[in-house]
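Known limitations

Files may contain more than one protein. Parsers should not assume a single record per file. Below, a two-record file is shown to illustrate correct handling: read the sequence, read the token line, then continue until end of file.
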Amino acid sequence: MAVAAAVFVVARLAGPHLDVPALVAYAVGFGCVVGAALGAGREAPVQPRLPTLLARLAPSLAVLVLVLVVRPSSWLAALCVFVALLTAGSLLGAFVGARIQHTGHLLFVAIASSLADLFSVTQPEGVSAAIASSEVALSIVALSFPMLGTDQVEPLLGVGDVVFTALYLAAARRHGLPLLRTVLALAFAFFVTMLAVIVFRVPVPALPFLGAAMLIAQPRAWQVPEQDCWRCFVALSVMAALLLALMLRG
């Protein structure tokens, strides 16, 4: 976390003095944020107790509430939010990921999160779409990073992406899945997400790419316990039907 914060500060102080193309600045910023998310997820405790989790979340939540209330304009506020979201998102993701009982459950996590994220980003009534249209909401739920060549700090990654990064890494550690393969797969998924944003110039949901990368990298995620197949299928079918109904209603 300290390294991520230091990189943020260096980028903000040195960035305005550099002559960097906008595309390069975006790629560097996105890469730094992704690296911070992967590092935070890798280091997050795998099995914290709930009281410990709440105690560790409290400072981060306090920072976010303070920023929401005071709304300071300084880049230092963006740095505080950056660290708070990294901490809170990785702790929450690790807490959930460590409680995934079977590797086969990752298949349903990947599908459910992908469906929800696709709806959230692409539909006007989706949470992500609403947040993207609100500068205040972006300031406290998105990880921002300094853009080299400018004095701007721009939002690049949602806290939900940090949560699921930590979730997949924690699940991999718990079940003895190859950790390096998981890290590389998630990094590649973020890289594809970045390319999609650059090519299409619209917000692109990252969770479908993260879920697909996890399933491809870890074949054991396809081994669903027989007793869970039917109820998971029903739950996903209901979820898909609800999302489809909301889309058609819009």
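...continuing to the second record:
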Amino acid sequence: MSRPEFVQSLERGLKVIRCFDAEHPRLTLSEVANRTGLTRATARRLLLTLDELGYVSSDGRHFSLTPRVLDIGYAYVSSLNVQQIAQPYLEALSEHVNESVSVTVLDEADIIYVARVPTTRIMTISLGLGSRLPAHCTSMGRVLLAELSTDELRTVLPAELTPRTERTITSRRELEAVLAEVREQGWALVDEELEIGVRSIAAPLRDSNGRAIAAMNVSTHAGRTTVAELHEHFVPALVATAQEISDAFAKR
């Protein structure tokens, strides 16, 4: 149940913004109404308001988002100070291991990329700031999910975990056991569960109160790096860098 202070028009306006994506960059009024579940009249008023504010543009038939929408996301990223504080450490780690290094935050059942130092592309999907991936089958997602209580996990995770490969853990009980191990050791390893050929390790980034505010990972190709090599060479470097970034966060 929503709070008495809940502003439904704001919720609907944000729903309109979120209905645009890579597969639907340009939408008609009818398409916006269908994708949001709003009436045409309501969708029209919201689109015209967003147009007036500069968040949406129109060619007379189709609507699309404008770059001003990025201001909303950038306000969050800049408030974390991730790029300002962590970027030099990410670049140093990437150069040391010669692999891509990323930072994400948890948003319900997904992780969202907020910083990234790419090297050779190893995934079929393109990742950049704002990209989303399911938390349950990613190393950074598991690091952040491991911080949640049992009740929080049940609220956040969907009833059915969608497999991304034949190796993806889809059993809630098995995932909870893996998260307990991650919680104890302080880092996570995911072996071709998100995409065949991709292995990654992740560790949490903590604030001065010890709260995990983000996670960072190193991704590599399975044909280039064995699991044993990840344990022996990559994990120590990752954990050490994560601690350096956490220490820098604590001093800000």
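Parsers that stop after the first record will miss the second one. For reference, the second record is described as follows. The chain has two domains: 8-65, 73-251.
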